[in-house]
DNA sequence: ACAATTTAGTTATTGACTATAACTATTATC
DNA sequence: GATAATAGTTATAGTCAATAACTAAATTGT
């Protein structure tokens, strides 16, 4: 009678050789991201948010009166791609958009009370979802990871 | 006379507030990845490789005779999307595709000498490109990062 | 002060990538 | 030997990021 379960294997396939990819930071980053991102996506979808709209809502909440190009800059995205997202957040009553009197090209973005509440609730859910994945990382490893990632990001600018 | 330069600011914009996003691992992973990926893309493009075709070539080089579904599995992609990539690698003479006699549904993939050489050269270039970005990370931090990312990935399976 | 340039927001479009479904040929299962 | 499952393929649809072109408004240069 064969062992009914857990004869190694079966977690991640029959171990493919890899002498190169696994040592590349880009590859490791992408793989780790691909595990986490779908979970964030899933919990945000419960509130009809995409990752990008949640990010926008979050930055707007933290920066009352920010204008679209600053927001695009902060999130490293094209301002043209921002428009529809802002449109939707506004239509859902999560943010307001009003012309800046001193520069009428610009729109000051502000999160509504509903928007702020949704942001806080959604943020909590994303954090929980992440915590489940990183469960076995202790606080030191987590902090170290975040610091190193931040430095990676900064090194290019 | 005002200081002519470097009154802080100017690196990454006028510091936008952020009480949430920056503490999320998914966000940090994505940002770090977005710094590194374009560099890899750039150096690989010099050899007419995309990141995904380089990844395929690399795994095939390390696993002579691997079949397409195993490769798709290893790279966590759909086997349908693999076809055109394999087609191109084959047409460029970087790999060969031949029916396995014992199971004629399958194709055994093998890197040619040219393919292996290109893989090695490209890998070296990607590594160098990454090294420039992570320059200021010492070896301990780098090793720690890789280990933690690996664990993140494994925690979900 | 006014012409030329730049900036903010917008619209439309494109290319790249991912996921899905449907199909054929072959193998495995009952 | 019929039925189901698997490998590879094709076609297609949805998502996303990048680009160009445009309008309105502000800034700059002379």
Quote the beta fraction of chain A: 5-15%
Task: For the largest sheet of chain A, list the strands in their spatial order.
Answer: 1-2
Chain pair with largest interface? A-B, 64 and 65 residues
How many domains of chain A?
1
- Radius of gyration of chain A from the CA trace? 20 Å
How many strands, which pairing sense, and closed or not: the largest β-sheet of chain A? 2 strands, antiparallel
- Count the beta strands of chain A: 2
Q: From the 3D coordinates, which CATH architecture of chain A would you assign?
A: Orthogonal Bundle
Question: What is the fold named in CATH at topology level of chain A?
Answer: Arc Repressor Mutant, subunit A
**What multimeric state do the chains show?**
homodimer
Mean pLDDT of chain A, rounded to whole units? Answer: 91
Q: Percentage of helical residues of chain A? A: 55-70%
By CATH's scheme, which homologous superfamily of chain A applies? Winged helix-like DNA-binding domain superfamily/Winged helix DNA-binding domain
Please tally the helical runs of chain A, counting DSSP H or I stretches of 4 or more residues.
Answer: 6
Secondary-structure content class of chain A: mainly alpha
Order of secondary-structure elements of chain A: HHHHEEHH
End-to-end distance of chain A = 61 Å
Q: Briefly, what CATH class of chain A? A: Mainly Alpha
Unreliable segments of chain A (pLDDT under 50, ≥5 consecutive)?
Answer: 1-10
Question: What is the global morphology of chain A?
Answer: globular
């Amino acid at each position: 009678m064969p062992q009914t379960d857990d004869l190694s294997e079966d977690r991640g396939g029959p171990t493919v050789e890899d002498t190169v990819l696994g040592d590349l930071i880009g590859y490791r980053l992408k793989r780790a991201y691909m595990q986490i991102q779908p979970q964030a996506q899933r919990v945000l979808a419960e509130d009809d948010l995409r990752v990008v709209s949640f990010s926008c809502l979050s930055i707007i909440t933290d920066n009352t009166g920010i204008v679209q190009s600053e927001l695009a800059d902060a999130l490293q995205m094209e301002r043209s791609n921002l428009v529809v997202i802002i449109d939707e957040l506004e239509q859902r009553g999560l943010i307001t958009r009003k012309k800046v009197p001193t520069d009428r090209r610009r729109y000051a973005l502000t999160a509504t009370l509903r928007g702020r509440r949704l942001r806080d609730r959604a943020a909590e859910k994303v954090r929980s979802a992440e915590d489940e994945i990183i469960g076995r990382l202790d606080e030191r490893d987590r902090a170290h990871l975040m610091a190193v990632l931040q430095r990676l990001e900064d090194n290019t600018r």
